[in-house]
Amino acid sequence: QKEVEQNSGPLSVPEGAIASLNCTYSDRGSQSFFWYRQYSGKSPELIMSIYSNGDKEDGRFTAQLNKASQYVSLLIRDSQPSDSATYLCAVNVRNNDMRFGAGTRLTVKP
Amino acid sequence: NAGVMQNPRHLVRRRGQEARLRCSPMKGHSHVYWYRQLPEEGLKFMVYLQKENIIDESGMPKERFSAEFPKEGPSILRIQQVVRGDSAAYFCASSLQTGGNQPQHFGDGTRLSIL
Description:
The complex is a heterodimer.
Chain A: E1 4-6, E2 11-14, E3 19-25, E4 33-38, E5 45-50, E6 54-58, E7 61-66, E8 71-76, E9 85-94, E10 97-100, E11 104-109
Parallel strand pairs in A: 2-11
Antiparallel strand pairs in A: 1-3, 3-8, 4-5, 4-9, 6-7, 7-8, 9-10, 9-11
Chain B: E1 5-7, E2 10-13, E3 19-24, E4 31-37, E5 43-50, E6 53-56, E7 65-68, E8 75-79, E9 88-95, E10 105-106, E11 110-114
Parallel strand pairs in B: 2-11
Antiparallel strand pairs in B: 1-3, 3-8, 4-5, 4-9, 5-6, 7-8, 9-10, 9-11
């Protein structure tokens, strides 16, 4: 079983819709969870972090964490074409060590 | 620029040569991570280092690859006797020393091409 799993996509949503990105992880001891965005040919950039069960909102982004289900998600409201990118889920597996999912490619169509 | 600095941005080598990739972490960061990314694929963890110590090298190929993070100077990822399959983007990331909740911040990467 992979440590961090994501649907590779591609996920396509119309402009203005909600994009929902999902991630599951295998290590029950994981405490820190991150979402990165990576544009084609660029480096990953951190967009959200979440540490506690529930929702965390930052602008159009909402991260959701359910440790019992070992599940973390990212919602993007009012999706824009500029949101088109690959979204990487990352999980701390040990103190200061992190593993990434393969990423979900999102396309927002005007 | 206080971000993670990687150089060179692009590196071309012929088969059998050596490639050296450098990474200077963000100011104040003492943890460095190296990842490899093939086109259209995710980030593959290679190695995690702190100053003068390799903490986790479970993602490093057993041969030809090595990494160091000396007391002074940047972290170096070294690939000896490169082969075509080594062509990839290599990203370095760094994080703060304290706690397990610190995110990693990435450099712009080195694109390695093997002729």
